[in-house]
């Protein structure tokens, strides 16, 4: 399921951010982590990915291919013989179309709705409380607001139902102050107002909305919940940093004291607002006191970390994102229409060449050498586009469809579609160059070993090796 792939991929990125945060929280600008969490949210919520040669998944694929070709020969493994009859595939697809929604999908939807209802109910309950707030009738507040004009309308109100200040609203924002605020302490009051205004200017409420959406969609992933906590903290830390930059670093002690003065009295959860001091107050105080002027070196380091982490952990391997439109939904006519191939005239495998294949790490099944499909085809100059997706198959549970498309000089030469269930190839459909062998049994003999598809060396010699590169 695509949602699982998105969640697992984002989990790696979340772990990377958490590690960077643990070692560099007080060394980098706090906005660094704000940006990293925003990239992680894109990975969690946008249902497509960007490919990069510098992705860690590209490296993982290279290592996997390298070690799979170094496997020692395996004996006693019978190839799985599968037919290519169209009627078998069509019957399977017909049953799939009428299959009920999987249990996993039902559970996921129930969890999503439960989370969404919880956050929505909590938010609406507090919104009703906010509507009882009255305008802040204070001369200093009015004067401060006049001296800080904004493009969006911002109201400053007071409520007797709050213990700490907060800001809410995206386009019609409100700064809400507790009625018990010390209105005579104008310095502390200014810190509070600047802090909440920074939240509004940065659209932090919108950021929190996306965080809630990510938690609802990926409610089953504990790392996403951890991201929700850390990202909310970093929103506050980034805001604190902006306030200190505004009022001057010589005032950070006074600002820290203002935070301490606002004790944490609220016990309810308010998910879509920006609170002045509700997340990790101790961490915020330490961060404020350790805050230093950002140097050019620190700024460059932050840019490199954001860029490197985003490219390395938030992108996919090109092999996993190519040819996303290639799937079994195409008709046989459509598939064959984009296949251009000629039968090569290479020599078949002979017994004298067998020792060379064993040295190459070919699988040995009763004296027949089998080579990995993707690696061997790429070594012969072909591009292999691999696309996989989960499918519902009433006959075979936990079925994943793999499409292998061979491309050369921009032309699609052939497509092999395989259904794998519980580690076994159960059905297949092949077109074009995959059929170019003299022995029909050659292209219907497939071995699945360590998540790698192997086909007989004779197939590669007759169908792909146009320059006799293989032994």
TrEMBL record:
Keywords: Membrane, Transmembrane, Transmembrane helix. It comes from Desulfosporosinus lacus DSM 15449. The chain crosses the membrane at residues 6-24, 36-60, 101-121, 294-314. This is Signal transducer regulating beta-lactamase production, contains metallopeptidase domain. Residues 2-288 form the Peptidase M56 domain. InterPro entries: Beta-lactam_resp_regulator, Peptidase_M56. It comes from the Bacteria. Residues 320-345 are annotated as: Disordered. Residues 320-330 have a biased composition (Low complexity).
